[in-house]
Queue: 2 jobs
Job 1
Amino acid sequence: MAKVAVIAGDGIGPEVIHEGMRVLKALDEVHQLGLSFEEMDLGAERYLRDGTTLPPETMDRFRDEFDAIFLGALGDKRVPSNVHAKDILLGCRFQLDLYVNFRPVKLLDKRRCPLKYKGPRDIDMVVFRENTEGLYTGVGGQFKRDTPDEVAIEAELNTRKGVERIIRAAFEHAKQHGLPSVCMADKSNAMRHGHDLWQRTFHAVAEEFSGIEAFHLYVDVLAMEMVRAPERFDVIVTNNLFGDIVTDLGAQLQGGIGLAASGNIHPGAVSLFEPVHGSAPDIAGKGIANPLATHLSAGMMLSHLGHPELEKKIQGGVRKCLLNNQVTKELGGKLSTKAVTDALMVHLGVA
Ligand code: NAD
Ligand code: IPM
Ligand code: MN
């Protein structure tokens, strides 16, 4: 038995989540997983209707009643401040202490790779993005706003505990999966305080994992190396903002933003699964959003709920969609969001 809260969200969010739910419900029926779903009325529509972003009672329910949260995307031009997205998405990440943002970069189909001479063996890494601190906490302030002397400070928060646990999670993952290396990326050549903490913590934790190669790159070089020689990377660990940026880069290496999945995880507790992409207002409502990132995220969620074999199965099905060119327009295909999912369900044997 597992209880899943569903936040469809804005833009293409509801479109991809609808398809994700079709697959999850079909798998639930065939494999008797005992899943139950509750759709939450949260997102831009709700905010515009009654000003609610994420009520504290709902956060308590997420923590106490649910095993996972399945989210589409949040972001709507009618809410220029993006306050609802910050409250809901960052609210879950911070208040549920989802400190691991787990973002695999795995090329499933050679032809989808934008890099010459690189293939699935070269592009197979996972990014451990710190998810509860860094430049995302809102610590800072504005002074003399809307005057010529305006000042704005955005402070980067780094705690020993926060840095250590994400670095440790990266090494533990490498150890569990027999991966040879962990790369830590920071900007300690310019940021002398917080990133010095990352340096010292990385070296201390690495010593506990003697069989794993621990190496460091400045984040600008990491961006370059992910393109020049992606085969260098097995596990990458980095801070919140850098992790956000390099995983969009990683998304392209694996074939596009419509294929990148993520898990916002607190090991052993309620965790949130979502595609890496946003609400894509430019294509919303057209039925052409790529649902595969959502399906891969659903697979990750099933693994979190104790069904790792189903994550593998979904990954295999997605690979078949890619190989058969059963894909949406942005990947050169002709299929709709729904038709891609229909094809996936045939591959999964749940059509
Ligand atoms: P975006 O990821 O929504 O879109 C970037 C580009 O990728 C667009 O051209 C879009 O059409 C394309 N794209 C994205 N997902 C796609 C898919 N599944 N299939 C096909 N094409 C896809 O990024 P953005 O435009 O910077 O952001 C739009 C809104 O989404 C903003 O409000 C942003 O804050 C928000 N956002 C939310 C999340 C989230 O909720 N997790 C993540 C990123 C961005
Ligand atoms: C992501 C998104 C979010 C982030 C935004 C919507 C706040 O880009 O999940 O990658 O920066 O973390
Ligand atoms: Mn992002």
Note: The mean pLDDT is 98.
Job 2
Amino acid sequence: MEKYWNKEIECMSREDMKKLQDERLVAQVKHVYEHVPYYKKLMDEKGVTPEDIKSTDDLHKLPFLSKADLREAYPYGLLAKPLSECVRIHSTSGTTGKRVVAFYTQNDVDMWDDCVARAITAAGGTKDDVCQIAYGFGLFTGGAGLNGGSHKVGCLTLPMSSGSTNRQIQFMQDLHSTILCCTPSYAAYIGETVAELGLTPDDLDLKAGIFGAEPWTEEMRHSIEQSLGIKAYDIYGLTESSGPGVAFECSEQSGMHINEDNFIAEIINPETGEVLPDGEVGELVFTSITKEAFPLLRYRTRDLCVLSRKKCSCGRTLVKMSKPMGRSDDMMIIRGVNVFPSQIETVLIAEGYSPNYQIEVDRVNNSDTLDINVELNPDQFSDKVKDIQNRERALSASIKAMLGINPKVHLLPPKSITRSEGKAVRVIDKRKLHD
Ligand code: ADP
Ligand code: ZN
């Protein structure tokens, strides 16, 4: 039987949810207008006053906030509470440039923990579970977020942080961990190490994994599920809107329910800013309606996905977002074609290769080049040059069928690509160095 952490909210009627969001949005806009001069100025410039926002139907009237605003307002410019009422600071991983910082009051931390508790419960977690947290602890939100949620559910929590993979597995066995939380790339690495140690999933007590903080494909999910003998659930979030737990996957494992009592989601056309209907791919925009210290309104995440309000078999009524296919700034334009690393990952894993790969893009003689380094599994490795060349040719053809452009595939010996303990670096775009 499906369990809920907060059934009243997670299964609320759409009508009641709208009412709740309407009330919270109106109050939040007022709070921000009065306490955040940076955003007040944006509203004034757009000619919008708090009185114009009477319900969520008026959301589109508000100005957007972007990462550039956060960098400009760094560090205190978007703070809506006195520092004396804040209890915590976190910072983005800096994947795409200068880090930004976010502030939390105690209520903000409680709200965040509550969102993560819903995610853990949706993955089958209860107070009888042992939850091993192998996301990094520190300024990064992964460790702290899952730690807080795990405590709230009452799981026996193992705050391991990332790294020391053999020790992770040792504790996993000795302390009977049932839930593993980390990035999907680290989960794949742990799965690989389990096999190398001569262990099988039967030697572990794991039943579920909660993996997020970076894009991962369905193919990657199946591969991790097999290597660890678990069900793997996705979790989404970003520092700007607290951290992981903004959205989480349920037993249906097809998209993540957004915690709409705290966050209103919109999908926009990234070029025009126009709001798109459900079912269309676009940039995800979040408005946090309960956060006190760092309440971003209409924040552009740069993550591309689709929203769906189709009925979910788990019984939750919360809107679902699809797995983000990547950030708009992860998208590479190669010889005029839009390419996402996830498309390449899909082909690699479907063709039986490891999820250990790296993409190199460059520009030679005014033409873009695409090189894909892929590691061979030990059983695929061969010292016959011809075999490797044939494999490279076949894989290039499959990738060309997916992307429409010809890559140069390089199959490398096992263990030649550095494993990730946090967010994997999939793309090296050397063209940027020439600019
Ligand atoms: P940074 O933006 O520097 O990486 P964060 O650690 O706050 O800082 O990361 C948030 C970002 O991570 C999101 O905007 C999104 O791009 C990515 N992300 C988080 N969870 C997921 C997920 N489940 N699937 C895909 N991408 C994710
Ligand atoms: Zn569901």
Note: The mean pLDDT is 95.
